[in-house]
Amino acid sequence: MPLPRPTCATQMFHHYSGVQMEASGRSYIPKNFVVSRYNSGWFEPTSLVWKRPFEKYSLSLGALMTSKSQEASSKSLVGEEKVGVLLLNLGGPETLEDVQPFLFNLFADPDIIRLPRLFRFLQKPLAQFISVLRAPKSKEGYASIGGGSPLRRITDAQAEELRKFLNAKNVPAKVYVGMRYWHPFTEEAIEQIKRDGITKLVVLPLYPQFSISTSGSSLRLLESIFKEDEYLVNMQHTVIPSWYQREGYIKAMANLIDKELQKFECPEKVMIFFSAHGVPLAYVEEAGDPYKAEMEECVDLIMEELEKRKINNPYTLAYQSRVGPVEWLKPYTDETIVELGQKGIKSLLAVPISFVSEHIETLEEIDVEYKELALKSGIEKWGRVPALGCEPTFISDLADAVIESLPYVGAMAVSNLEARQSLVPLGSVEELLAAYDSQRRELPPPVTVWEWGWTKSAETWNGRAAMLAVLVLLVLEVTTGEGFLHQWGILPLFR
């Protein structure tokens, strides 16, 4: 089903330091989502506080800065400090030999596969089992896109372009890449940051929308690294958790969509199909993950920008890449493609909305699997918007986000005790992750541990108990040679 369009804009007024600002709930929020700390706690003059889906955001104080004032004041912001920017990303295997160990690192992350506390010791054995089991099929996918993921190469290129843009804006900074599940690991990037003597660090996850399974997982790892190192504890830093609402990002996405639409014979008849990486439904409904709300807001902002250009195509949003038996965010991309074909849609333009780099989910899953499914489902014309990569408007805007965060990097706690609190900026994500990061509670399991009655939980656990009982009986039958199966003649009698 195409997403409903917003019908009105809610006007809001906010006062910061005696300054009145007016913001539209459906207009761009062009500045970044930045919070850092000061001596007596958490300071949030620039936070865009997320409440519940589609409640409005407050406009940051940084919105008062113009691009000219940014460049004029950037030198004073840096001073004698050594500024670093840490780009966080997922990572990907660069060769086919890397696939299995990469999958092990992925599934060993408790933010990806969540086990009850009683079975936490099985995390790594289970990760090993799953990675070995999935490696052959995954290798086929990576072989089809050239034998490995291009993610590291693209991210390195983005880091270099970001460095150049920052330098051009009078902010000499070093840019580092820290991957979550493959080289260069976050730990490797941090070691280089220490060797370079960085004194101000801006942490920038390369995920436009925040999710506890992507940005959240990377930040939790970073937090654990910070706690163990006195140098890092005392280093000034801040985090930009998400930036999907920035004007440069929105315009860059609209530019790519506009360009790809023109390749169709009848551009106005093309369905724009936003496909985002999925997350388990429990993350959103039980853990407060803002991912779904931010994704829907992001799509709305892009479509508003396209409407300004007189592009009024129908559009929809779906979620891809689900794994395992638990329920993920719906609608699912594959099911939606089939439904669109059945409804008579003939032209489809896929937009990988949650990815800023090409990798297995775009090059193989979308370009091969979903394209083939679309053509089988009756869709005749297929197109795909490329990932942003090093698109200049996008990278320049990221540089602006970094510059806008610099005034708040210095507001770091001087007390080691204070500094050892959560790295994830509570002022900006407390609403999102109150049960996950700030209070250190575990994520809810995909299925509640036990519920009585005719519930999904009861059915699941009853099924598991029945399977375990059958397995035990089979083992006893085979080892003892006695039992119902032997009596019924299903298994041969032997003693």
Structure description:
By secondary structure, the protein is of the alpha/beta class. It is built from 17 helices and 12 strands. It has helices at 67-78, 99-107, 123-144, 151-168, 186-195, 215-227, 230-233, 247-261, 281-285, 291-308, 333-342, 360-376, 392-409, 416-419, 426-438, 456-480, 484-487, and strands at 11-16, 19-24, 36-38, 41-43, 83-89, 173-179, 200-205, 236-239, 271-277, 315-320, 347-352, 381-384. The strands form 4 sheets. It has a 4-stranded parallel β-sheet with strand order 6-5-7-8, with helices on both faces. The protein has a 4-stranded parallel β-sheet with strand order 10-9-11-12, with helices on both faces. Strands 1-2 form a two-stranded antiparallel sheet. Helix 4 (151-168) crosses helix 13 (392-409) and helix 8 (247-261) runs antiparallel to helix 13. The radius of gyration is 25 Å and the shape is globular. The termini are far apart.
